[in-house]
Design brief:
about 260 residues, Rossmann fold, alpha/beta, four-stranded antiparallel beta sheet, about 30% strand
Length: about 260
């Protein structure tokens, strides 16, 4: 069978990843339904980013099967299929030219590019880019160079870029990393709004901190040393026992009006 069930945006079956003698991921079995918003949580080096890269079709596993939006990795033209996957990550940010304008950085994603020079863009494309920026309060920054944007503005611009192609799956790799408190809370508010919108694609968010889980995210996957230690609905999975096991530390998890906090004891 070369196609997965249509109710799932992402399906991984017995996926493992090795680099030389190092096993980065081991026997990952995971499904993301089309109406779910997942958080991946774990220590540094637990395999979170590698898992996201496999989901984004930028990294092949050593073994196992990967279905993304109904197509199997190895049986689909990934150059075309990647255009159906939105990504917000540090890798995208560092690939952008510092002097590219916010609008061009967003618009170029329509062709899976990092520059607007190689393709023709219509007036409708320009308006679509402006609308994407407007959605996150950045229309006034449309003609600013990327390097002049604040850290929070950059992350919101990358979010606009990730969504402009109306992707079937959106991957967010530590989008709040390096943000100050105000910028972090503003971005988390944007993500919470996004999570509740019916036309939002399935979301996968990687973070180190339970405090950075936005409202509206429905499921949690915990990774430890390349293995899933727990996965399921947020309210059932994010608890002191599971988090303590994942981080090998006595941790108390608290919920305050839907937002989580954790501390060692």
């Amino acid at each position: 069978m070369s196609r997965a069930g249509s109710s799932f945006a992402l399906q991984l079956s017995n996926v493992s990843l090795r680099f030389d003698q190092t096993e980065v991921l081991r026997n990952i079995n995971w499904q993301v339904a089309t109406d779910e918003r997942w958080v991946i949580l774990g220590r540094n080096g637990s395999g979170k980013t590698s898992l996201a890269r496999i989901a984004a079709l930028t990294l092949h596993p050593s073994s196992g099967r990967v279905f993304v939006l109904g197509e199997e990795l190895g049986r689909v033209d990934v150059r075309q299929h990647r255009r159906r996957i939105g990504a917000v990550s540090a890798a995208v940010a560092t690939s952008l030219r510092p002097d590219i304008t916010a609008k061009d950085a967003v618009m170029s994603a329509l062709n899976g590019a990092l520059e607007p020079w190689w393709h023709h863009y219509s007036d409708a494309d320009h308006e679509k880019a402006l609308a994407a920026l407007r959605r996150f309060g950045l229309e006034a920054q449309a003609n600013q160079p990327f390097r002049t944007l604040s850290s929070g503005e950059r992350q919101r611009m990358l979010l606009a870029r990730g969504l402009i192609c109306d992707p079937g799956l959106l991957l967010l790799d530590e989008p709040t990393s390096g943000l100050d408190l105000g910028a972090r809370e503003e971005l988390l508010s944007d993500l919470a709004d996004l999570a509740t919108e019916p036309d939002t694609p399935p979301l996968v968010l990687i973070t180190h901190h339970v405090e950075e889980i936005p409202l509206g995210f429905t499921h949690l996957l915990l990774l430890r040393e390349g293995q899933i230690t727990a996965a399921g609905p947020m309210g059932e999975t994010l608890n002191s026992e599971n988090l303590s096991h994942c981080f090998d530390l006595n941790i108390k998890v608290e919920n305050h009006d839907g937002r989580y906090a954790a501390r060692a004891f």
